[in-house]
Write a structure and sequence with these properties.
The chain is α+β, with helices and mostly antiparallel strands. The protein has helices at residues 3-10, 31-43, 53-60, 64-84, 87-97, 103-126, 186-211; strands spanning 133-143, 156-165, 177-185. A three-stranded antiparallel β-sheet has the order 1-2-3.
């Protein structure tokens, strides 16, 4: 089997002949309807069961069961194109599984994939899990005037408040900002600043090498 077919089988996602459901695309009233179906497949590629089957069925004048098969086929094609970053891999998968595909349909699918792949790749990168982002730093010096540990009385320390913004998980919601508070002694602060200085120097070195 081709690399595309092998990658789909390895992920347990491909069923022989399942891509024949792409034939329903020829029932679309316009190319816009086909484009919308592909974009819906991309949006629901990780949760196919939540795709709006009734709306898709209405767009193509098919049953909801047929719409479900169509979405599954579209998701296979879209995932293959995005995963391999190549339209050709997706088309090879189609050619193997749907060898007698209508020439007009094949051309239409290839046209949509070529036009949409750059946007899908960008969206996939943006949606990957990422670390929280630092948005604000606040601090103040604190002097302990009472403590169970007598030796620490009247010893200054710094209280640091970091405001960090979590990565968005829903395009309709603003990511939350939370506080991370911690205390540092003078010695711990010196150690941290020394470490941050080394990080700064290393980043400067990397940036300089990239520009040379």
């Amino acid at each position: 089997p081709s690399h595309a077919m092998a990658s789909m089988v390895a992920h347990g996602q491909h069923h022989a002949g399942s891509l024949r459901a792409l034939g329903h695309l020829l029932k679309a009233s316009s190319k816009v309807t086909v484009l919308k179906a592909f974009n819906r497949a991309f949006m629901f590629r990780e949760n196919v069961g939540e795709a709006p089957l009734s709306a898709i069925a209405a767009d193509f004048s098919i049953t909801e069961a047929e719409a479900g098969h169509l979405v599954e086929a579209l998701v296979e094609v879209v995932k293959t194109a995005v995963y391999n970053s190549r339209v050709g891999e997706a088309m090879s998968l189609i050619d193997e599984d749907y060898s007698d595909i209508d020439a007009r349909l094949r051309g239409l699918v290839e046209q949509v994939l070529t036009a949409q792949l750059p946007d899908w790749r960008d969206a996939s990168v943006m949606s990957r899990p990422a670390l929280p982002k630092l948005v604000e730093v606040d601090w103040r010096v604190d002097v302990k005037t009472a403590s169970d540990q007598v030796l620490r009385m009247n010893v200054p320390s710094v209280l640091v408040d970091l405001k960090v913004q979590d990565q968005p998980t829903n395009t309709s919601e603003v990511p939350s900002v939370r506080s991370v508070d911690f205390e540092l002694s003078k010695e711990a602060l010196s150690t941290m600043l020394d470490g941050l200085g080394k990080i700064r120097d290393q980043l400067s070195g990397v940036a300089g090498a990239a520009q040379s």
